[in-house]
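Exercise (ungraded).
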Amino acid sequence: MKNGTAKTGTFIAIANMKGGVGKTTTVVSLAEALAADDLATSVLVVDLDPQASASLCLAGDDLLADLIEGGRTLQDFLELRLFEHDQKRSLLEFVRSHLSLTTHRGQQLNISLLPCGPKLRLFEREIIYAYTKKGHSMNGIEGVLWTMFKAYFRPLRETYDYIIFDCPPGISPFTEVAIRSSDLVIIPTIPDEISNFGLNAFCESLWRSEVGSTLPRPPKPFVLPTRVQQNVKQHVQMLSRFEVEAAASDSAYRLIRTRIPQAAALASALVLDGHPTFTQKYGPAIVPVLDALTQEIKEMCHAGRD
Ligand SMILES: Nc1ncnc2c1ncn2[C@@H]1O[C@H](COP(=O)(O)OP(=O)(O)OP(=O)(O)O)[C@@H](O)[C@H]1O
Ligand SMILES: [Mg+2]
């Protein structure tokens, strides 16, 4: 598909209702792994989480503070378009291009960021309030967000090979729209009892529930086992349960073969520190894991397009 200009433009949502399972770690490490795998690949990370963790990991404290103060975030764009009716601004103007400090084979990784700040949460509430006042139902508001997403985000397919959403814990209105409009939905999940409970609740809410949304159904999600500890019996048993569940004919999800281990290298990968190479940053134990994940994701994307 790639010929130097044509982009594959795959939307990937990384989401889980449960917090702290490794969503942001997956977003950042997957973005870097995809960009390192092929240096011509361009990746855009879209931060939908008001905690702004992905923005912080990629931009660092100082730049993120400048972007928030300078009105250069996702909610600033949406505010202009939805409430101030400034139709001239394009979403691309709010993207911070080529900001990765990580290199591979002497080149900077081609990663861009659409940052957000803590005000995104209030802004989502403002949208709901404003459209409720205009007489829209909840389904109507979802419809507004859906239309907005199509108009503003879909054109990004022409600029980037991968557009990865870092979703907040819970199911915010933006998360719901991002999941329903993505080509691939990945649910990072710790293989333990409490996370499995959260996983089932999440799948029930978004994939199995017949009532509620009028938006299109999202694609069947893929569970990515994260923070896996092979020496913990509960983890090993839960991984077997994931395999059985994923193989069932009425399964709620499919299972990614790659398992992300609990590893200090992944925890520290979220902290910006100098200009490391991809190999230095993740180290010899994690680089092959990220390579395997990248190949699997690329296969899934190809399968989705065929
Ligand atoms: N594979 C891992 N090995 C070790 N630590 C990890 C791993 N994955 C995530 N962590 C650590 O766990 C914490 C939560 O990770 P992360 O922020 O990626 O989760 P999250 O699902 O995005 O959280 P939230 O729901 O708050 O957005 C962080 O401190 C991170 O460094
Ligand atoms: Mg997060």
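Further reading is listed at the end of the chapter. For now, observe: DSSP finds ten helices and nine strands in the chain. Residues 10-305 form a domain with the Rossmann fold fold (CATH 3.40.50.300).
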